[in-house]
Amino acid sequence: MVSTNVQAEISFGGFTRFIFDGKQKSLMVTLDNEGDAPALVQSLLHWGDQDQVRDLPMVVNKPLLLIPAHGKASLTIFYQGVGLPSDRESFFLLSVMQVPEKPRQENNIQIALQHNLKLIFRPKLPGSLEDALEKLHWAPSPKAPPGAYLARNDSPYYLTLTEVALRDRAGNSCGEAVEHLMIAPFSSYELQVPGCSKAAGQIAYKFISDSGIAHARQIDL
C-alpha cells in the first residue's frame, strides 16, 4: 500500500494572470498560504513562448519563500529596463511550486503541484485590449479544408480566447470547442475545430480580460 500527500494550499488572491505596467520598474505578487502548516515555495520566471534560449531581462527577487500557516508573503519581479520590445506586449510564465516536506512515513509519495501564471509585460501602447479584440479579424483559411479559419491580430496586444466554437447560422455547434488559444501581437492563428469539416456561419468564444474574467462573444462570418 502506498499513500500520497498532495499539498495545494497556495493561492494568489484569485488572480491567474498579472499585468506588468511598462511605466513601472517592478511588480509585486502576493502569495497566500491557506494551509495549516508553513509552506516553502519556489518561484521561477520563464519566457511564455517556446524560445527559452534568450536571456531573460527580468528577475524574481525571492526565488524561495517560507510562508507561515494561514499567512501571506510577497515576491517582486524586476525589469532591467532594456531587452523587451516597446511596440508590443511580451509574454512570460511565472511558475510557482510548493516544495513538499520530507515524507514522515515509509511508502509515502509527496507530490508537488506547480502553478503556471501568465505574466504580460505591457509597455505604453496605443488603444486598449478591448480595442484590439474589436479589430480581431476572422476569415476562412486559404490553405486548409473547410472548417478552418484564420484569426488575424493586427494589434500589439496578446489576445486570450477560451471555449472557441464554430456554429451554423441557426446556432448549432460544429465539432468540439477549442478550450484555449492565445494569439500573439501582429500575428495570425489558424483555428481548426476537431470534428468540423464544413464552413461555419458563426464563431463563439470567451475573451479573457486583464482581471481574468471570461466575457462571452459571438461574431458572424
Summarize the structure in words.
The protein has 221 residues and is mainly beta. The protein folds into two domains: 3-122, Immunoglobulins (Immunoglobulin-like), CATH 2.60.40.10; 129-220, Immunoglobulins (Immunoglobulin-like). The chain is built from one helix and 18 strands. It has one helix at residues 129-134, and strands spanning 3-7, 10-11, 17-21, 26-33, 39-47, 58-60, 64-67, 72-79, 90-99, 108-112, 114-122, 137-140, 148-153, 159-167, 173-183, 187-192, 202-208, 214-220. Strand 17 (202-208) and strand 18 form a beta hairpin. Residues 1-6 have low confidence and may be disordered.
* Number of domains as seen in the coordinates: 2
CATH class of the largest domain: Mainly Beta
**Number of helix segments?**
1
Q: Name the CATH architecture of the largest domain.
A: Sandwich
Question: Which sequence of strands runs across the widest sheet?
Answer: 3-11-9-5-7
Question: Secondary structure elements and their pairing?
Answer:
Elements: E1 3-7, E2 10-11, E3 17-21, E4 26-33, E5 39-47, E6 58-60, E7 64-67, E8 72-79, E9 90-99, E10 108-112, E11 114-122, H1 129-134, E12 137-140, E13 148-153, E14 159-167, E15 173-183, E16 187-192, E17 202-208, E18 214-220
Parallel strand pairs: 1-10, 3-11
Antiparallel strand pairs: 2-4, 4-8, 5-7, 5-9, 6-8, 9-11, 12-13, 13-16, 14-15, 14-17, 17-18
Summarize the structure.
The chain is mainly beta and 221 residues long.
Which properties best describe this structure?
221 residues, mainly beta, Immunoglobulin-like, five-stranded mixed beta sheet, four-stranded antiparallel beta sheet, 1 helix, 3% helix, 53% strand, globular, disordered N terminus
